[in-house]
Design goal:
single chain; alpha/beta; 5-stranded parallel sheet; 15 helices; 24% strand; disordered N terminus
């Protein structure tokens, strides 16, 4: 262990200790908070013991911590009490999940009038600011984290290739809201002289399948057989979508409701930036006759499915009553279920889905589902609470530019956590990335992959997808090209 004499005397020192076997964005948030509390951030890395066979070696975990610019010094810890007595930090910082546990540091700190603090950093904090040249000490963090992930979970390309080939045997029902994404490319003219309004001239319009409909198209492109259940208006947009879906080989059960338009989201864009989005929709529940027909068709077909995918955008299709009825039908047949309920312009409710093989919320959606928006509660706590509440075997919390945090909760007594950085650092259009993560990971889980192999390919598919404008079915050739790098 490093000797405390090596440290230059400073006004304040904050100390954080842990295993750090998986260095994830939640840790970066804690380090950032620590850097705001004191002049010097010291991290104590607990040494590996024989009782921890799945842990990385000390040297590997040490190298990962060295990439974080927020940390001033790192010490290996064999005896925590001895380390603290040598360093005598003014502050010992621990995650908020330790607040109601036994904390022996509190007694030791009294000897030099130090204090114990609990926090998990700011949930709005973007750890991407501390990646590469924007904060990490070198450019090695991203490839190092990626390589560590492959090593830690024994990722094998052959296993993924075999799994992709088996997807064709899978029969899937996708249930969710239709969205048509309209992109209107404009040339900027300038600022209006009458009022501070940006003036643009429309030049080109492109229409894409969106919402749960693109999830169904991705499912087909990935190789599965798919039925798509949804609702539309009685209009030309619905006709266009029916043509697109059938042309793509997706079997549809689309119930036309003359009390609503087909949902359309128009994006006015210039120079690859969205200036304004206009949504045309209604979000009231389906009429009882359409609900009854939906449930009748679903029940009649459930024996044919291996997997049910709920892709909820909160436009009135997947009400709590409908979800409860459909899940009951699927559970009686022993069919696996996965879900995503998006919160963006609409307020989603992920908590209405239970008994899931997989759920893939954003951090905001996860916090809303467990009713915890307190910044003091960290990601590791949120993801376990969500898994327990939804009775979900696997959870992936997507973190945008910070990648994703994954939890295998199939054995609640031995939850396993991992993290993977974002694989595309320069996205063109992030719309639909979460949908592709959900369906790719779900299909690979369904045919027998573990969470680590499946979520890696979900992240790969999403990274490929956001390199283009608009929702388009995943390009399997690019996925296979990426596999060659593993």
């Amino acid at each position: 262990m490093s000797n405390s004499k090596q440290f230059k005397p400073k006004k304040h020192r904050v100390f954080i200790s842990g295993l750090f076997n998986v260095l994830h964005p939640g840790h970066i948030r804690l380090f950032k908070f620590a850097s705001e509390l004191a002049d010097e951030v010291v991290v104590g890395l607990q040494q590996k013991t024989d009782s921890e066979p799945n842990m990385f070696e000390d040297s590997e975990r040490l190298q990962a911590l060295k990439t974080v610019s927020l940390i001033d010094h790192i010490v290996l810890v064999e005896d925590l009490e001895k380390t603290l007595r040598e360093l005598k930090p003014e502050i010992v910082l621990k995650g908020s999940e330790f607040k109601h546990r036994h904390n022996p540091e509190e007694m030791w700190l009294k000897e030099w009038h130090g204090k114990l603090m609990f926090s998990s950093g700011e949930s709005q904090f973007n750890a991407e600011k501390f990646v590469h040249s924007n904060g990490y000490k070198n450019e090695a963090h991203f490839p190092t984290a990626y390589r560590n992930y492959l090593s830690r979970h024994h990722i094998e390309r052959q296993q993924i290739e075999l799994a992709l080939d088996k997807i064709s045997q899978t029969r899937v029902a996708v249930v969710g809201d239709i969205i048509l994404d309209e992109y209107i490319d404009c040339d900027p003219v300038g600022l209006s002289r009458e009022d501070p309004t940006i003036v643009v001239t429309p030049q080109d319009t492109n229409l894409f399948v969106g919402g749960a409909a693109i999830v169904a198209q991705h499912t087909k492109t990935l190789g599965a057989q798919v039925d798509f259940y949804s609702v539309s208006g009685v209009d030309s947009s619905a006709d266009w979508l029916e043509t697109k879906m059938s042309g793509h080989g997706v079997n549809t059960y689309i119930y036309q409701d003359d009390s609503r338009p087909t949902t359309v989201k128009r994006r006015y864009r210039t120079q690859n930036k969205t200036l304004l989005r206009v949504n045309e929709f209604r979000s009231h529940s389906l009429p009882s006759t359409l609900q009854a027909q939906l449930l009748k068709d679903f029940a009649a077909n459930i024996h044919r499915y291996d997997l049910v995918v709920f892709s909820d955008f909160s436009y009135g299709l997947l009400t709590s009553d409908v979800v409860e009825a459909m899940q009951d039908i699927a559970r009686r047949q022993g069919v696996n279920m996965v879900a995503d309920s998006q919160t963006s312009s609409q307020r989603g409710d992920l908590s209405k889905f239970t008994h899931l093989m997989l759920v893939t919320p954003t951090e905001v959606e996860a916090r809303l589902a467990v009713n915890i928006q307190d910044n003091d509660v960290g990601l590791a706590v949120i993801i376990e609470k969500l898994a327990a509440k939804l009775e979900a075997d696997n959870v992936i919390i997507t973190l945008g530019a910070d990648g994703a945090l994954m939890l295998d909760f199939s054995d609640p007594n031995k939850p396993r956590l991992s993290s993977l950085p974002a694989l595309n650092k320069n996205p063109v259009d992030v719309s639909g990335a979460g949908d592709l993560l959900l369906i790719t990971t779900s299909l690979l889980k369904q045919i027998g992959c573990d969470l680590w192999h499946a979520s890696l390919m979900g992240m790969v598919a999403s990274a490929i997808h956001i390199s283009q404008v608009g929702n388009k079915p995943i390009d399997m050739q690019k996925v296979k090209q990426y596999l060659e790098q593993i």
